[in-house]
Amino acid sequence: MERRRQFAKSNLQHSISQLDLQFRPHNARVGLLTICFLWASLEAWVKSANWGNQEMNAHALSRLAICTVVLLGFTRFAQAGPPLICHPIEIGHAKSLPWVEFNHKGSSDYDLKNLSRDTMAILDSRTPVLVRMETLRRATIYARQDPQAAKELITRLQTRAANSDAAGRADALAWFDVGYLAEAYKQWMGKDEPNPAAGLDGYSWVRKAISLRGSDPEMEFAAALITLSGPDRAHRDHVQKAMAGAKYDPLLAQNLASNFNHQTISELLVAAPAGRF
Question: What is the pLDDT of residues 14-57, one digit of tens each?
């Protein structure tokens, strides 16, 4: 009985050590603490189990070790952060909001009272979709610092999109903007924070924009990032269309080849849903 227990423990330790080698990020403190805590918990469980009356054997515990490896593998995406926020979009020399780090908190030189005005000015200039994505990413980071600014921006974008429908000229870019911002808000604003995008289905607005726009690989790229956690079939469709269009869009191709948490964005997109963030 003791040999069986030791075999199972050794097998589990080997699996977790292999996971640590494979997935350790540059800042591995959180990952290592998770692994150590989980191993300590499992080891205590093994010691306390009544092996004489349990059907679980070493092979069953080995399967548990494999499941543990898979579970911990998923944490690498959580450690990297939500892609809509933590991965900047390459826009070349195009104009956007002032640069801001995704982990920015507190005061800065940028006046948040101007956030809505400045963002709308960029979006209303008929800028390319990739520039809109990066502008809305930066706007979300800023908006998290000021609930009033966050609400004002998304309200203005909602109104602009709705007005285009009411005028009988549905604006694909307007619907894209409010949809993408809503999804960015939901990825970045915590459950205990005011979130004006709570309850909004931004992805459905992005799909509406794609329908209105027709073939647009950059919008498909945005939708692929939004659907990293599903729905799976729609995600695969968006990925396929984005990659096909990248053959004729050098800046989109550059974004797909850019690095995110030790892999390219295209690898991240193709790996989903197995590699969800």
Answer: 443 443 333 333 333 334 334 334 444 444 444 444 444 444 44
Torsion, CA 238, CA 248, CA 256, CA 157, rounded to 10: -60
pLDDT of the residue at 192: 85
pLDDT at residue 257 greater than cutoff 90: yes
Residues 6+ apart with CB under 8 A from 185: 140, 143, 150, 154, 195, 196, 197, 202
Separation CA 268–CA 258 (nearest Å): 11
List the chain domain ranges: 2-80, 84-271
**Burial tier of 176 (Cβ tally within 10 Å: 0-12, 13-18, 19+):** buried
DSSP conformation letters of 218-237: HHHHHHHHHGGGS-HHHHHH
Mean pLDDT of 177-189: 97
Tokens of 29: 């403190």
In whole angstroms, give the CA distance from residue 84 to residue 140: 10
Closest among 228, 119, 139, 231 to 188, alpha carbons compared? 139
Looking at the whole model, is its pTM more than 0.70? yes
- Residue 242 exposure: Cα atoms within 13 Å on the Cβ side: 29
Q: Which two tokens stand for residue 164?
A: 């285009």
Q: Do the beta carbons of residue 40 and residue 91 sit within 8 Å?
A: no
